[in-house]
Each structure stands twice: as C-alpha cells, then as structure tokens.
Amino acid sequence: MNVAELPITGYFDRLSGRPGETLTAHVSVRAGGVYRARLARVICADPNPAGPGMRFEDLAGLFDRAIEGRHQAISIGSYGRVAAGPTRAAAAPCTWTALIWPGVVTRRQAVLADTGGGAEIVLSIGPDGTGAQFVWPGGTVAIATGVTLRVRRWYRIWVSADPATGRVVVGQQAMMHGAPTIAGTAVAGLLLPSGGPVLVAAENPGAPRHHYTGKIEEPAILAGFFETWPDVLARPGQLGGTVLATWDFSRGIDGLAITDTGPQACHGTLVNLPARAAVGVRWSGQEACWRHANGDYGAIHFHADDLEECAWQPDFAFTIPTGLRSGCYVLHLTCADGVDWLPFYVLPSRDGTRAPVVFLASTFTYQAYANHARGNADDAYRARVAAWGAYPHNPDDYPIYGVSTYNRHPDGSGVSLSSRLRPILTMRPGYLTFNDQRGSGTRHFVADSHILAWLEDKGLVYDIVTDEDLDDEGAALLAPYRAVLTGSHPEYHTGRTLDALQSYTHGGGRLAYLGGNGFYWRIARSPALPHVIEIRRAEGGIRAWQAEPGEYYHMLDGQLGGMWRRNRRPPQQLAGVGFTGQGLFEGTHYRRLPASYEPRFGWMFDGIAEDVLGDYGLSGGGAAGFELDRADSDLGTSDNAVILARSETPPASMTLVLEEMLSHLSTVSGEPAADLMRAEIVYFETPGGGAVFSVGSITFCGSLWRNGFEGPVSRLLENVVRRFQQG
C-alpha cells in the first residue's frame, strides 16, 4: 500500500450544520507543527482563468486560529476483532479452520490469528499464494501446503496442533474437484494460545497487518486434532470435536457485530467496514435477497484497502457563528509544508427566515465519487494544474485515504461502501477532474460552484441544504422554499430523498434539475452508520463494476440495489428526463424547438433571440455534453411535459446507455440508437401547482459563463429561477 500522505489534511465529523451548531475538525499534519485554520465562503471553486476564477469571501475575522498540529496515522484494511478468544486447556490439541474464497494470492495474508498466554498461531495464505500456511510464533516456524490457491474458488483451510506430541499439520481442500493437501512437522516446545485477542482477516492485534482480500466464512476454533478434514463442507459442530468458538457471519448482516455461536460467546466487531451480504459457499441461488435466506449469506468480503474512517482524534471544534448566512464554506488550513481546505455547508437557522430559492448540494454523489482514482494524472494534467494554480493533489497519488465507489479493490471487486469521515481530495476548491482542452475539466463539488457563482452574480438570494439533510429530515426541509435547484450531477439518491422531492413538486414546489444522469443509482444508509453510503451496482446501467450474482441487495438496509429505473422509479417520473447517452467530457449545443416560441413560454425565453443555445462553455465546451437525459413517456415523463430544446450533432464519442439496448440491433423504444443520444430541455407543471424545469445535461451549468454570466443559457435559467421564486 502506498503510504504517501498530504502535508496537511483533514475532515469534519459532518458536512453541514446550522448557525450555533458545532462541527468537529480532525486534522493531520504530516511533519507536525503549528497550522492555521481560517474561515472563508466559497463563491466559485473553478480555477480556470478563462472563467470566474477561484472566488472566496474572506471571513477570517470570524474564525482564524493557530493550532498545534500532529501527525495522525491511518490504519487501512478491514478485519474482524474479538477482544478475548476462547480459553482452553494448555496441553490439549486444537484446530483452527475457515472457509475462504481468495481474491488475491500474490502475498501473505492472515485468515485467522489467535493469541493469548504469550503464544500466537496464524492460519494464513502463504507468500506468493503457496497454499494454506501455519505460522508460529512470530514467524519463527512456518509450514505451508505448497500448493498454490486459485482466486475466486472456495477452499477449506485448517491447522491442527498437539502440544503433547508437537505435531502440527496444515491443510487445504477445494470445494469442487479437490483432494486435500496436507503438510506437517513436529515443533519442539509447542505452546498454544488461549483467551487472548482473535483477529479474522489480519494478524498482530496491536498493529494489524497482512490483511486478507477475499471472502471468509465460518472461521472456527475447535478442540481436537484433525490430520485430515472429515467433510469439507461440514459445519464445525458436525465434526465430532468440541467447538470452542465459531463465528456465524450470516447473523447481523446489517451491522458490524460478529457473533460467536460457541459456548464461550466470544463475540467481536468488524473494523473498516468489509462488505457483508456476500454469498457464501452454501448459496443455493434460490433466493437473491439475504433477508430471505440468511444462511446462504454466511461470508464477509474483506479487503486490504477498506477504510471506514480515519479515526483521527479531534483537533478543534468549530461553532458556526450565529447569523452566518447559508452557503458553502471552507476552513483554509495552512502549515509550513502546504495547504488544504475543509469544505462544509451552512444551512439556515431553524427559526430564521428562508430565502426563496434553495440549492440542493449533491453530497451523496460527491461521496460516491470521493477520491476517485482515475489514473489520468499524467504530465499534461499536472502541467494544467500547475499553470492554473489548481488543487495540487490527486487521488492517484494518495490511496491511503481510500478510494471511490468507481474504483475496484485489489481483487477486482467493486468498492461498494464510501465514508465521509476521511479527507476527500475530489471535494476541494480548485480540484480538476480532467485535462479538458475545451473547458475547465471540473465535476461535482467544483462544477456545482458555477451555479453558486451565477446566483451571486445575478443577485439571487439562496440557501443551501444537502442530500444528507434531505434524507434525514424529508420533505419538511424543502417546504419553506418556492424553488429547489439541483447541481450538475445529482446521481445518487435514497428512497427518502426521492420521496421528499416528489412530495415537494406534487405539493406546489418548483424544481430546476440542472444536470444530467440524475436520480440514477439507488443507495443505502443506516442510522447506525450515518457517515456511510452503499451502492450495489446490480444488473443494468452504465457501471464501473458489476455486483456478484446474488449480491444485489444492500447490506445496510436489505433493499434491492442498482438503478432506480430497475426499482420502478425512473428519473423521468420526477424530472421528466432520464439518462440516455454518455461520451467523453465534451459538449455540443441545443437548438430550440417550435414549442419554445409559443406565447405561453415567452417568459422563459424573454431576451433570447438565438435559436442555438450553449455552443460554448467551461464544461467540455458546450452545454449539452458528457451525459445526456431525454424525455420518455413510457418511463414516466408527464403527459403535459413540453420539450423546448434538443441537442444536436452529438460528439463522436457519445454512446447509448446499456439499459436502452435490447441487442446490438434493437433498442427498448424501437428508435434508432443514434436518435436516442440527445439531451432535452423539458418543462411541465404538476397537478398540485408545482413545476419542473430540466436541462438534461451534465455540462449545462458550465455554459452559464460566457464573457461573464451572459448569453442565452444564463438568460434562460435566470428567467426560470426568477419566475419560480415568485411562487
């Protein structure tokens, strides 16, 4: 694992708060020493000198502190910890065993480590995948089967030891078409552990190491000696020996506890959030949901790069000043060796007045993409960063802070869980996602600041709330507002956030969906882990990886993962448009359709003489690009929806999304694939007196800027927002 660290970095315990509430900052300074933290409000976070540029309101007068910093370490890699394992007679024979499904076999990996009484036994995968290995103690004695394990295959592995004779055997047997392989030796002065900490998927309780990557099921400690294994699939209690401990991972799948069903109840807990709801060796395929067949889901998928949280000690508390306006803020951290930013949002006071407009920050999407290591930080990218004075750090260089749900673990499995309790490099002012030759190359947090800068320029008063706030508080959070504006890519949502937005528009609220590929993936949260989101990329959709068969249901809430479209909630039902095409980060323009010239929409196009909209922009050079949405009545677009403009001449890189294809020859709708790759600007009114305006493109808001915030795209949105905020 690369252990490069930033000179200074940190995170807050929450991403948002209200005036008078306190956020806790966790900071690490690589070399130690004093650092300063200063408050600023973010107006624009795009460093492109051809655009608004990085703009902040300096609020150091409200918070400016010198703090003694310290380096704080990160322990990465998931494992299970039992504080006190089973006790046993010192001279009695004992066996340690587990079912394993290795994901990586290129290094030593601990599967089950037992300690206590000055002794330690480790059952592991040997170096270079050389089969099951016994290590005792401190690595002075090691025995391996010598038969290389294969990845993605189930094995029974075990080690048996008898202090009376010194005899030790280590064995492995594949679940299918495998004969047992056994190696043994005599160890003088053999001493076995008793009553100390037990680790699953790691060893060395004081400083866990040699983390395992792959699935583990049914680890157990048994009294007795087994030269060979009687039945490779037999459960520990069926083998004739006495069970000292056996951990049943099919219990408590939605939590972090691991349950010992043995007589001494040596329960434990999981560290760094491995993936549960994983199919085990006994999965029948008759049920796809773990809630209906817990026993089929007896495995946990551990990874050497899992990270639930940095678990740093608090550095200081920041109480949001009373009277501070709602908005996007940062604490600017500076030390002798570098700088960083800690972003957060300030919501309006609960008892204060509300602005007419609220911006819904897409924090679930920011979290899903958190520290996305794209592998694109080449020399040209770094030259652009340096020339613009952009944020200098890229996740490609700092895997110690964990990666995104768009990355894969070392065994190729997808990252399904993401925590906000860690530094998120991609959520920093000035961060560049791409070396965009036609624009800024920004996405998510930085790209959404185009909207904030535009609101400031137009003098439109606004508040900010976040996805997480909406998930926690529901429709009541939006009720005071006349209009809700989304960001450029509100992709990830829970059922509660969709319910809240649908309730808002049906109850008379007005929604401006200002992006593309929104409301696409279903995510899960748990009250026990509010800082974590989960995504299972089930069948269908444009996916960075796909979930294993049988693992489509979230561990956190037990609900079916995947696209909202597969959950019978297509984006068109809420926003009138849904994902249809994807290409490289480049854009084209829209052309107005005849409906846009009708008198009833004159208010929307007041002051716009152009027929072409957005053939320019800071995001890929055009307002209709990268990921496009279109209307579709079969998927829920309202019957009274009107298509006002449509993109044309899509970039050559644009492709139709997979869920629209039936085969290489036919699409779901029956239209030619080329005709479906279009962005559409749609408007409709709801029966409850609400309205929805959707632009159908991720790059739309990059075209708010043209020689200042002028031009037809800016004018169109200004007309819409000013009408919406009138109610």
Please explain how this structure is put together:
The structure is a single chain. The chain has 727 residues and is mainly beta. The protein contains 8 helices and 43 strands. It has a 16-stranded antiparallel sheet that branches. It has a 9-stranded mixed sheet with strand order 28-26-29-31-43-42-40-37-38, with helices on both faces. It starts with 7 loop residues before the first strand and ends with a helix. 56% of the residues are buried.
Strands, total number: 43
Can you count the helices? 8
Structural class: mainly beta
Query: What share of residues is helical?
Result: under 10%
The main pleated sheet reads as:
16 strands, antiparallel
Instruction: Determine the strand fraction and express it as a percent band.
Output: 25-35%
Rounded to the nearest angstrom, the radius of gyration is 28 Å
Q: Look at the structure and give the mean pLDDT.
A: 95
Termini Cα gap: 55 Å
Shape: elongated
Q: Which regions are unreliable across 5 or more consecutive residues at pLDDT < 50?
A: none
